[in-house]
């Protein structure tokens, strides 16, 4: 692994999403998830608002509320459902989901807390390198555990905890291209 990088990244400054109701967003992210609201902005010309939440480790999750934002389109701008419950594919250039890194020792507790708060959570997923990429039971090849849930606007969220360090052997696949995606789409139309 090379340490000679052209840019020094220190994580994410912020990820900015769009919500339909800023009060409901504040209630969910601060009230349910416990993310402190750190900065609020009224956009000029009555355009809307931009609020920032502390996501930990110096990272922020931000939301825009635009007075004239069009409604999202499930299955295009965001997944329709949680993985395992329905269609979770989203369109090119969309944001599919946000995975929050949580401590492995608190993983089960955090899932319980969300359920107690009335949040519909998906099952625990033990991600591994098997053909299905999901293990029913824990084993040394499980590299991350997670579960999915959605915010009030249907934004797909995930609580995930890494279970092992990655090695160069974990980078083993050739990147696919746009032309391969189009060929597969055409084949599925026939």
UniProtKB/TrEMBL annotation:
Gene3D superfamilies: 2,3-Dihydroxybiphenyl 1,2-Dioxygenase, domain 1
VOC domain ranges (all copies): 11-162
Domain of life, per lineage: Bacteria
Name of protein: VOC family protein
Organism from which the protein derives: Gordonia asplenii
